[in-house]
Design goal:
Blueprint lengths: L13 H9 L1 H12 L15 H8 L10 H7 L4 E5 L9 H9 L4 E5 L11 H8 L2 E5 L19 H5 L10 H16 L7 E8 L20 H10 L13 H4 L14 H28 L5 E6 L10 H4 L6 E3 L5 H7 L8 E5 L4 H13 L4 E5 L4 E2 L2 E2 L2 H20 L3 E2 L4 E5 L1 H12 L17 H15 L4 E5 H7 L7 E4 L7 H12 L3 E4 L20 H4 L33 H6 L22 E5 L2 E5 L6 H8 L8 H8 L7 E3 L9 E7 L5 E7 L2 E5 L2 E6 L5 E17 L4 E3 L2 E9 L4 E6 L6
Parallel strand pairs: 1-8, 2-3, 3-4, 4-5, 5-6, 6-7, 7-8, 12-13, 12-14, 14-15, 15-17
Antiparallel strand pairs: 9-10, 11-19, 16-17, 18-23, 19-20, 20-26, 21-22, 23-24, 23-25, 23-26
Helix pairs in contact: 1-2, 5-6, 8-11, 14-15, 17-22
Length: 756
Amino acid sequence: MAEAREPWTPPVGRRQFLFAVFGAAWALQAARRSAYALAPGKHPSGADTDAYGHYVRTSRDFRRVKQEKAWCEKAFPGWVYMPWTYQWTIGYTPDSGRWSLGHGLNGAFLDGNGGTPDSPPGKLAWINQFGLHFYMDHTAAKHYLHLWDGGQQKAHLTELHGTGVRPVPVNGALKQKLFGFIRNNISQVKSSPVRAAYALDDEISWGHFVHPTMWRITDDPDAYKAWLGEIYGHVAAPAREGWVTYEDIRPHLADWSVREFDASPLMDQWSFNDSLWGNLLGDLVEYANSVDPDTPCGIVGGQAPNAFGGYDYAKLMRKIQYIEAYNLGSSQAVIRSFNPKNAVPAVTSHFHQSADDDIWQVWYYLAHGNRGHIGWVEGWFDGQTPRPWLDAVAPHYLEAGRKIGPLLLGSEWRHDGVALYYSHPSIQLGWILDAAAHGATWTNRDGDHRLGASHMVRHAWENMLRDAGLQYSFLSYIDVIQDGVPDEYRVLILPACLCLSDAEARAMEAFCRRGGTVIADYLPGVWDQHGRGREAGGALDTLFGVRHDLAMTAADVFGGGKLWCEVDQDANFGWKTYTEFLTNANSCLKDPSGFYKAVRAMPTANVRRVGRGTATLMNLSPQWYNAYRVAGYEAAQRRETFLRHVTAGGVHRWVEIEGAGEAAFGYEITYFRKPDGRTVLFVCSNPEVVGSEVGGGNAANLKTRTIDITLKFAKPIRSVRDERRGAALDDGTRFQFHWPQNEAVVLSFEESAPAA
């Protein structure tokens, strides 16, 4: 903490607390909020009667930068492997250029550190000579968007956890300084015909990665007040005095009832930081476009969706034109979902673990819409001699770069009519509830992607759907407030969506009444979008036909103790297996279905018809599925507890491996629609993925056997082509393959998936 302060102790009762801390204006908002209660079957209007809905529909916080598909694909064609040449010991010579192309390394990297490209003399000429599409890192220099390297962070922990201002505040002066770096760096490379993208900086954050950070990111004393006026409405904006930290809220979490619960002072601060950060990035991207109108600009080193660091991906993906992100906390699927028409080139990091894993990464990430790798060159060479594994991997890099990557140009991801809801306020509140287990040591918490309930619940839903042969996309709170739930979806799933606004609830109910299926696991909308417990029932209680008792406390959910979440994440901070994570120091009630019950006094699987649709509240957490799928094919059948409600909504797999059992279990099928109407389909393995805040996306327990499979379609397909072999196949419904499980089967055909 930056300074010693008296602990924040709310008066007894929420109304008194509001008046004592935030003044009468805050109470006026509560009254106004009650007046805007859920209107069944109606979408929010464009009027200012719903301040939050108006904010999301009109604020620059949500305005997109240019993200035109043809423009992005012209700059970043096909699939590109770009070595980050940390230990590139073979030089930039004709021999190394030919070796690179011969091994499928068809891309490159330049460093714009310090305002001028910092690379060996002649590297750009070498890149141009061999036609290596490159990105330039640190286009906005270093130590402005990313503050400190490595252990340097430790000297600044007091600042990170305190209530001061970011050491490099976001303001007009910073923006102008970064404009200068961008202009100087781009001007030195924009004549290259093979420039593919600019990255403003690596592993950026308004704090430090996703470390718990409490500071304000701007030194503008009026910015927060103005933003509160925008998000609440100027008449009803709370009169906030000072800046708070998690320590101001933590001591009250175990005792607060839902009705008394108010995390809005903290969550609003984080959302404010996210918005200012996103707007800064958008301005920098657009300035880069003004210097070079032909090349996308974005970031690299992206982290998991998180309460800290600017990783509200619903906002972030509207502000960038290029991204490399580590596969943490569903980030790859979230980015793919929020990428309009798969226009923005998204790549992943590659860290060598084994040749088998390298090959799997090529095909897995291609199968999920990625456009290449940034490869960490460490231990690739013995002096001037490349190591043998590079020869083993090269054919796959070559095939991805020359054949399958170009095949996917212009295509768009196809789902099966299933949407997973992305509620960033719920991620924020989830962190607040999770971190209570640490007590005063919350300042040491990291690794949310492998601890946080929001991440683990989301992961379980994704794996249940993939293992059942159903593809999905994430749907964000922004899109739902702006446009409602699109009719292309039949099923909307709410994974740990604790915080929902009235505008979102209206859109969800309207979707259900039109014939959609809405499924929530637990506590949906019991808090509002600011992290305040609701005063008139959960936002979706009417939809689900239930009544959440707003007098309930942490003692009434999951383990019945002092935590609102199902896992004591302090006791399990270094967990090794999912079963250990879910059982150690745990007193949750396990339902006969094999999943933990959420609200202990409420029934499970409440199903209700609403209009032409169906609303189902499970009152169960799906986290146990993460353990069941590791146990194997038979244990994973427990997913039917949740998935039966998904298929009842009218979505079914249309292609599968016929008779798949233990040997093939963990396979996934993805598909893309090309502009000519053809579908490109991948069969790949979907193992657990491991990584950290500094990179990765490697497989755990990867299957590498070659097995015989029969791919079975629900109806005949025609004009079928095995794209990897370059062979035409007969029309039909069954196709046989020898499948190396760390590779992919790739088909294209007419008669694509039934329209969702």
